Structure formats: C-alpha cells, structure tokens
# Entry
Amino acid sequence: MSRFAAWTAALAVLFTISGCAAFESGKEPAGTFTLWHYERPESAMGIAWNRAVELFKASHPKVTVHVETKTFEQIRQNGSIALNAEDPPTILEHNKGNSTAGVLAKQGLLTDLTAQANSRGWDKLLPASLQTTARYDEKGIMGSGAWYGVPNYAEYVTVYYNKDLFAKHGQQAPTDFDGFRRVMDAFTAAGVTPLSLGGAEYPAQQLFYQLALSRANRAWVDAFQRYQGSVDFTGPELNFAAHTFADWVARGYVRRDSASIKAEEMNHAFQRGEFPMVVVGSWMYGDFVRGIKDFQWSTFRFPGNKLHPGSSGNMWVVPAKAKHKDLAYDFIDITMRPEIQNLLGNSGGIPIAADPKALTDEKSRHLIEEFQAIASSDGLAFYPDWPAPGYYDVLGVAIQDLINGTKTPAQVLADIAKPYHEQRATVGG
# Structure
C-alpha cells in the first residue's frame, strides 16, 4: 500500500468521526460572534475559513458575525493586549508554541478547551503528534496538560523550486546536502542568486533552523523546544547553522540586502521567476498554485534532513474573557467538517480530517504525501522561535547580523544563548 493510500485509509475513520462532530442547528443562541484570523484570501486556509464563515452564518441566523483579517505580525505583537481586553474577539487564530500560546495559557488569558475537545471529538481528530501544540502545562510548556487551542490543519517548511530555471541551467532537484550546495554553486557561477530570502521576518530564521536540524536528532529537538535536556549553543547543531549561514551569504547563495526583505516580498520574487528556489512553509503552496502562471515548479524536502520545521497549523483559541463561547466551539466544529477539510486540501493546504476520496487535486496530493512522509518518520521539529517569549525578535536580529556581517557566528550564538537560558531558568528547565 502506498503512503498516500495508507494515510487516506486512516482519514476515512476520521471522516466518520468528523461527521458526528459537526454542528447540528437547533437552539442556536443570539449574540455577536467576532472572528480574527490572518490568512490571505487566496491561501488555502483563507479559502476554507471564508467558506466556514458562510456555513456558520447559515446555521446561526440570529447571530451577528464580524470577521476581521489581521496580519501575522499584528496578532504576534498585540495578541495579548486583545485577549486581555474587556470585550475580546469570540475566537481568533493564534500562533502556537511555548513563546506564544504557552505564555498566554500560563497567564490565564485563554479558555481551557479540554472538556470541549473530549466531548466534541477534537481529541479523536487530531493525531498525538499534532496535539503537542494544542496542550500546555502549568509552566506554559507544550506537549501535555490542558487543551488551549485547536489546530485543524498541518504545515511544514520545504524548498520550492523553479523547474524551468533548473532545466535552463542543467540542474536537477538535489537529494542530499552536498548536492544542494553543488546546485547553488552552479547558479551562482551563472550569475543567478539561488535562494530568495526574507531576513526582515520569519523566513531567514527558519532557514537557519533547517541548517541546525541537518546536524540534530530528536533528543536535541526535545531539549531545545521542550527543555527535556541541556542545549549547548556551541555544539555541532547551532554552531554548524551559524557558520554555514554566514558562509552561504559569503558565497552569494542569498542576496546581501535580504536582511531588509519581508516574507511577502521574498515569496513574490520567487513567484515572479526571479529566483530558482525559496525555502518557506506549506502555507504558501496554495498561493503559488494559483499565482504562478509563467513557469513550472515543484517542491523537495530540505536535502538530507530527517527533521524539518513544522507542526500542526496555527490554532483557534478562545479568550478567557470571551462572550458566547459556545459560538466559538460551534465554529471550530465547522472547520473540522469534511466539506471544509476537503476544500482546504484541494486548495493547497494540509487537512487533518478530510474525506480521502475527495482529495483530487494532484499538486495538493503531492504536498500531503510529502508532509505524511515527514510526520510518519517523527520528522516534525517545530519552529526556532518557540522556546522563549520574545525569541522571535532575538533570532530576527541575530540572523540579520549574520546577513550583514556585523557579528561573527560565535557572537551571534552568544546573543541567542543568553535569553534562551534565562527563560529556561524561569520555568525550572
């Protein structure tokens, strides 16, 4: 049986459960339902959530619905303020991990969703590996404790490549790390910068993390992310990442001005055909499917890595101060329905409860198969900014220093080690 066939057989069971969990209209309450999310309308998640809102309105005709689209940065920087307001949104999409959802859960700003997860069957729909980011203990460390969020899709970081540019320069998708460097050397020799990179936001630190993961194992990931062991910032994992990243800048694999480039600009540059490759998450897959018209493209997993940045997708969270929380729970149910999950999967996302027979888009099947290959081999390694509050900004500055050459790799490692160890000390890690 193929990996995709095995996965679809497993999803058939989830399809049945999801059908039972779907909201059944009846005595719906009146009130106001306010939803915040940060998915672009053309993304797979944006398409799916917009349809979910339509179904919610149809099944809750007495409810006034407000949908507000924020940016990732707006919620990352101001989410705790909104959650602590006297009249917060009913539900919102939020990032996951110790440094975000874990902190909010520890502060008492999120609703404990454990009873709902059990009674509505969300715990059956989410495999154990994807429940890691939904649950947090009393210290705000992910992986155990109460449910404080519900993800309903999955994601991982991969390499997108322009097949036409590869063919033009006589290159093929590499299968190991040395082959990856040879491909990039071939492009730079031809005067082509191999990688589109955004150093002003998250993409650059995810590339840095990919390099660390190329020398890491599961024990190191658990130590770094969940404080289950010591982390040596001068050890082979992070030391390799810092020195290799600096070397890649020196070799011209990325542009020296990329420290000021944002994620959206990075992705658009690849979409315009200006770069052979971009390393970014599966959340861009649907955008590229619909936006790239002038060349053929595909993806390959970061060459040689067994571990990859990735996890469940961003989560629905319910503010502790929210009114009409039952409406939030009903909306989560709707996003778990096969109709929404199927739409998500066929639009370039990675669903967790789709009807296998309904996943007909070939490019989407490729994406899902790639994710399943990673997930089934315990290859999801979360994201580098998760361990400590504020670590996203710490890493951002550090990677910009590497790109600009204003600090040595050793200095950068010292800069990112200090706040990490300070946070571990505060939680007894």
Remarks:
- The CA atoms of residues 212 and 240 lie 6 Å apart.
